[in-house]
Amino acid sequence: MDIIISPSLLSANVCNYAEDFGVFNQKDIKSIHIDLMDGHYVPNISFGLDQIASLRKLTDAEFDVHLMVTDPDKFVETLVEAGTNSITIHAEVATHLYKSIHYLKSFGIKAGVAINPATSLQCLEYVYPLLNRVLIMSVEPGFGGQAFVPFALEKIKQLNKIKEDGNYDFTIQVDGGINIDNIEDVIKCGARDIVIGSSLFKQDLSENIDLFNNKINEIINTP
Ligand code: DX5
Ligand code: ZN
After folding, report:
1. Count of the separate structural domains present in the chain
2. 43 Cβ below 6 A of ligand 1
3. What is the CATH number for 12?
4. 142 is in an annotated binding site
5. How far does residue 33's CA lie from ligand 2's centre (Å)?
6. DSSP for the chain, written as a single string
7. Which domain holds residue 162?
8. Cβ 62 under 6 angstroms from ligand 1
9. pLDDT, tens digit, for every residue of 71-116?
10. pLDDT digits (tens, 9 = 90+) for 152-208
């Protein structure tokens, strides 16, 4: 069972980026989750596109951009030029979801769709075969450090059944409110890419990565 933790850079201290990326490399982090916000779709602003290009030089890990913007198509080309490997857009903002997914894929990157806690899986029914990633938001998007919305577990479980029944390739990603006490639940429901922000960056990043990785190994190895 392949399970990864994806550090969410939103919770990192901007003054420590170089050091934190050193830790990511040392701990063999495969994917870094970058939340891009426009202050319109969500009431917050995070990274600029040039920042992403600068950070790209610090690691070979995948850059997984979670676009929390009203007009996602507008940013795709620049993000790809900046070295982004995967882009996830929100189903709630996509006026033409099918077309936007094709647009993402036309750049040869991984294409993902995110859905907020109150959004039903139904909107993805016809696009599952096209997707590399489905992101189940377990908080409302916009901020780190929020509490996990419990019914996200049921949604992950339903999505995992759909994936198995349809033999789809997409990875189930979960984002928001993950901590050492609930990671087992999301994994047992079917999540395989676990985005972690505040629980990873509080206190010692390196020790926290070990803590989560050890917990994952324990989960995988317990029958
Ligand atoms: C929220 C973001 C998350 C956030 C997660 O809008 O999409 O990626 O950084 O942070 P935690 O793990 O603190 O909920
Ligand atoms: Zn995110």
Report:
1. 1
2. no
3. 3.20.20.70
4. yes
5. 6
6. ---EEEEBGGGS-GGGHHHHHHHHHHTT--EEEEEEEBSSSSS-B---HHHHHHHHTT--SEEEEEEESS-THHHHHHHHHTT--EEEEETTT-TTHHHHHHHHHTTTSEEEEEE-TTS-GGGGTTTGGG-SEEEEESS-TT-SSPPP-TTHHHHHHHHHHHHHHHT--PEEEEESS--TTTHHHHHHHT--EEEESHHHHSS-HHHHHHHHHHHHHHHHH--
7. 4-221
8. no
9. 999 999 999 999 999 999 999 999 999 999 999 999 999 999 999 9
10. 999 999 999 999 999 999 999 999 999 999 999 999 999 999 999 999 999 999 999
